[in-house]
Design goal:
The chain is α/β, with parallel strands linked by helices. It folds into two domains: about 150 residues, no CATH class; about 270 residues, Aldolase class I (TIM Barrel, Alpha-Beta Barrel), CATH 3.20.20.70. It has 17 helices and ten strands. A ten-stranded mixed sheet has the order 7-6-5-4-3-2-1-8-9-10. Helix 10 packs parallel to helix 11 and helix 12 runs antiparallel to helix 17. It starts with a helix and ends with a helix. One iron/sulfur cluster binds next to helix 15. One iron/sulfur cluster binds next to helix 14.
C-alpha cells in the first residue's frame, strides 16, 4: 500500500475519519508519502502494518472503511450446462455436474423480478456463459430480449453485454443477432491449433476460428480467454504474440487451472511459473497493443492510483443465476452447491452474498504484513473453499502472482530509471531490498530523503507500460 503510493507519488486519499498515519501523510509537504515521517509504517515493512498500537489499528480501520460498498450490478447467467467440447481440464466435468439443464425465459423473468425487488439500478451489465451458451442458438436472443424488457420495466438498462463461448456452435444468424445487440464476445483458445486441440479436442481451434471470422465480418473484435495448463504454459509469451499478430484481439485473459477437488494433478502447473510466463507475455505482447488482463489490471493500479481491495467480482459486484434456479456471487460455484441458494430463498442482503463482502486481504490477518497488500485482492474464494478453508481465508498458492508482479514492477522501475535514480520516497536500495523479497525485515533501510528526483505517477506508469 505504502509502496504503491510511494511509487505512484499519488496523494493518499482522505477519508471521513482520518487515521493518525494518514493525517501525518497529508500534512507532509505536498501530500505525497515520505516514508521517513511515518515510522509506524516501517515497523514490519514498507506497507501499513496494522498489528500493534493505536496508529496501526487506526490505519487498518481506515483501509477497511475505504473498501467499496457492494453493488451487485454485474449479472451473469449460466445459460446451459451442455457443451460441445470435452476439455480434459473442464471443472464441470471433473466435479461431475455436467448435464443438460438450460435457463428458460420464465426463469430469467423470475430472476429479474427478484433482483429489482431488492435493487434500484439505472444500469446493469449482463454476461452469458456456460457450458456453451451458443448451444441455445437463437434462444439466447430470447433471454437477452426478455432481460432487456424486464430492465426497461424497472427503469434500468443493460449497459455492457458479454458472452463467453468456445465458438463451436455460433451460427451466422446468432453472430448477427449478438452483434445487433452490442454483445461483446470472448472466445476460448488455448493457443494455435497444435496446442489448443491437445486439451480441447480435434477441430476445436478451427471451430473457434470460424466463429471469430463470423464476428470479424460484422466488424466485431473478440476477446480471448486462455486456460493455462501443461500443454501451453511454456509457450505463453509466444502464444500471446501469435494472437496479437494474427487475430489482433483487444484483450487476452490467462486462466490458470483452479485446483478443483478431484482434478488429476497432471493438469496443473505451478502458479509461480505461470506468473513468470504471464509477465514475459506482457513484455512481448503489450507493445503490440494487446491488453494482457492478468498483468495489465495490476499495472492499471499504478496508472490510476487505485488500490485493489478484492480479487474478483464475487466479493461485491456479481450476481450469478444458474439453470437449476439457484443464485450466488461466484460464477464457478456450479461445482460448489454450498455457495448457491434457490432464488425463492435468496437475498442480496443474505449471508450467501454478505459473507463475501469482507473477503479482502485488508480483513485477513495473514495478509496484513504482506508487501503485496495494496495490489493483491486476496486470491480466489472458491479455491480457498475447495481447499477446506473459510471464505475469509486465503489460499497461499494464490500469493505467487502478486509477488511475482511486484518483483517485476520494482525491477522494471529500477531498470527504466538506470537503477540509481533517487526516488526520494523509496530509494534505490529500498527497491532492491524489496525485489529480494526481504520486506518482512523490520530494519528496512528507508531513506525518505526530501528533495528533487521524485518519481511521478506518470513516470512510474510509463516504466510499467513501455
Ligand atoms: S493473499 Fe498472499 S500475496 Fe495476497 S496479500 Fe495475502 S499474503 Fe499477500
Ligand atoms: S471466487 Fe474464484 S472462481 Fe469465483 S469468481 Fe472469484 S476468482 Fe472466479
Amino acid at each position: 500500500m505504502l509502496l504503491f503510493h510511494s511509487l505512484t507519488n499519488t496523494k493518499a486519499s482522505g477519508g471521513k475519519e482520518l487515521c493518525q498515519v494518514w493525517e501525518r501523510l497529508l500534512a507532509s509537504e505536498d501530500g505525497t508519502v515520505p516514508v521517513s515521517v511515518v515510522p509506524e509504517c516501517l515497523r514490519k515493512g514498507p506497507f501499513l502494518v496494522p498489528v500493534e498500537g493505536e496508529a496501526d489499528q487506526s490505519a487498518l480501520r481506515h483501509l477497511q472503511a475505504e473498501i467499496p460498498q457492494a453493488t451487485r450490478d454485474d449479472v451473469w447467467f449460466f445459460v446451459t450446462e451442455a457443451c460441445t467440447n470435452h476439455c480434459r481440464y473442464c471443472r464441470q466435468r471433473i466435479a461431475g455436474v455436467k448435464g443438460t439443464r438450460a435457463l428458460e425465459v420464465t426463469g430469467v423473468q423470475k430472476f429479474w423480478t427478484w433482483y429489482f425487488g431488492q435493487r434500484t439500478r439505472e444500469h446493469v451489465s449482463l454476461s452469458l456463459f456456460g457450458g456453451e451458451p451458443s448451444l441455445l442458438g437463437l434462444g439466447l436472443i430470447d433471454i437477452l430480449e426478455e432481460s432487456e424488457r424486464c430492465c426497461v420495466t424497472a427503469n434500468a438498462r443493460i449497459g455492457e453485454k458479454n458472452m463467453f463461448s468456445n465458438g463451436m456452435a455460433v451460427s451466422g444468424d446468432l453472430a448477427q443477432e449478438l452483434s445487433n445487440r452490442g454483445v461483446k464476445v470472448v472466445l476460448s483458445f488455448d493457443g494455435p491449433a497444435f496446442v489448443n486441440d491437445v486439451m480441447r479436442g480435434q477441430g476445436r481451434f478451427a471451430g473457434a476460428m470460424r466463429a471469430r471470422a463470423r464476428f470479424a465480418s460484422l466488424g466485431e473484435n473478440v476477446g480471448i480467454s486462455l486456460a493455462v495448463g501443461p500443454h501451453n504454459a511454456a509457450y505463453l509469451p509466444e502464444i500471446a504474440v501469435f494472437f496479437a499478430e494474427s487475430l489482433k484481439p483487444k484483450n487476452i485473459c490467462f486462466i490458470p487451472m483452479h485446483r478443483t477437488r478431484g482434478a488429476p494433478d497432471d493438469i496443473f502447473v505451478a502458479y509461480d511459473y505461470i506468473a513468470q510466463q504471464m509477465l514475459r507475455a506482457y513484455d512481448l505482447a503489450a507493445p503490440l497493443g494487446l491488453y494482457i488482463e492478468n498483468v495489465s489490471r495490476l499495472v492499471d493500479l499504478f496508472v490510476t492510483g487505485s488500490v485493489r481491495y478484492s480479487a474478483c467480482g464475487a466479493t461485491s459486484t456479481r450476481v450469478v443465476l444458474f439453470p437449476d434456479g439457484t443464485v450466488g456471487p461466484c460464477q464457478s460455484s456450479y461445482i460448489e452447491p454450498s455457495l448457491r441458494v434457490p432464488l425463492s430463498e435468496a437475498s442480496l442482503a443474505g449471508p450467501e452474498f454478505k459473507q463475501w463482502e469482507c473477503r479482502s486481504p485488508f480483513f485477513t490477518e495473514g495478509c496484513l504484513n504482506c508487501h503485496c497488500l495494496g495490489i493483491c485482492g486476496g486470491g480466489c474464494g472458491l479455491d480457498s473453499i475447495q481447499r477446506g478453508r473459510g471464505i475469509r481465508e486465503t489460499d497461499p498458492r494464490d500469493c505467487a502472482v502478486p509477488n511475482a508482479f511486484l518483483n517485476w514492477a520494482v525491477d522494471r522501475v529500477l531498470a527504466r530509471t538506470d537503477g540509481d535514480a533517487p526516488t526520494t520516497i523509496l530509494g534505490t536500495q529500498d527497491l532492491l531490498f524489496l525485489r529480494r523479497g526481504m520486506v518482512a525485515n523490520p530494519q528496512l533501510p528507508f531513506r525518505g530523503v526530501a528533495g528533487s528526483g521524485r518519481l511521478t505517477a506518470a513516470q512510474v506508469a510509463q516504466c510499467l507500460l513501455e
